[in-house]
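Collaborator request, handled under Task 6.
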Amino acid sequence: MIQVSFLGKDAGPAGLNLSGSARAFRVHESTLYILERKVIMILLQILWDDILPLFAFIGAGVFLDSKFKIDISTYSRLTIWVVLPCFIFYTMYRYHFESDDLLMIPAVLILLAVMYFLSMGMAHMFHLGGAEKGAFEAVSSFSNAGHIGAALAVMIFTHPPFATEAGSAPHLAEAMGTMVIIMIVMNIVVNTFGAALIRSRGSTVKEVLSFMVKMPALYAAILAILVRSAGIHLEHTFLWPVLTHFNGAFIVLVTVTIGLQLHRSKLRKPDRFILATSFNKLILCPAIAWGVLTLFGGAFSPIASQVFFICAAVPSSMALIIYGVEYGEDAGLVTQSVLFSTVAGALTLTCMIYLARVLFPLAG
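Structure tokens returned to the collaborator:
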């Protein structure tokens, strides 16, 4: 803002202190320059901490497949039937739900439902059918909350303006609590309904539901709730190190498998399918998330609202590639759509992080 003064001996004919205005303008320009540098640093930090590690694992998969004959179906089945259920069980078992947290669950489900029906309408408009239609709906609707989302939450809320000069992060616990709920709901839906969409081939609703109830991820979530409710403590049993190691192996197996599939996919320029799914996930989804938060009024704190909004802007779920590989339904198309969304998301996420602070500012 340019400051003016109507007093002082340097005042002009209208009492305007031109030298003071010039100084204020220079200060304003300097402040904008500092803010621009901070935004660039945030972008570089996101690329360095969250995006490049994923592509390093993907590159390892590409390298392995170029040098050796890898059985990709073994990787995908190991992930779907062993590693992923352990990951979901471990995540749900560790989190302590509070009564106020449960309101986030319907908010996430409403967001997913709206995105699904909007993408269904777009798929009909594009005359997509069978497996291609299911892939379009899945890639457009489901976020990569378990990989990029969780890492983003840690990075954002451990740095200014959310962290103090002393290095403490007073908002991190609340942010991660919200993130865990979103991640749990998203993982369950992606690995049941999302998997069913990838496999659908135009199946009926009954067939899709029948497939969903066969997914091990669903029973891992139910088992975690039962074990937690029964007060059974696993931390001091032999199972805890097993779960911990599987939790760490999840991201490695998923991304390496993506690299294997990418090496076997025929790369092509982004077409209408890829561009539309990326627009839906990176632009339309956060806009819908803002509408959902408006619908709930002031039910969520600014921190929870920011996490929800940012998570909606996270690129498409990489787990969908695993199901494309496993069921052989347009695996190359799903792989390229998700990866394009991830690369483009490195730019759009930076804007959405800033926009979240503007839309849901902290009090004071």
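The cover message to the collaborator said: "The two ends are 20 Å apart (CA to CA). The first helix runs from residue 18 to 67. Please let us know whether this matches your experimental observations."
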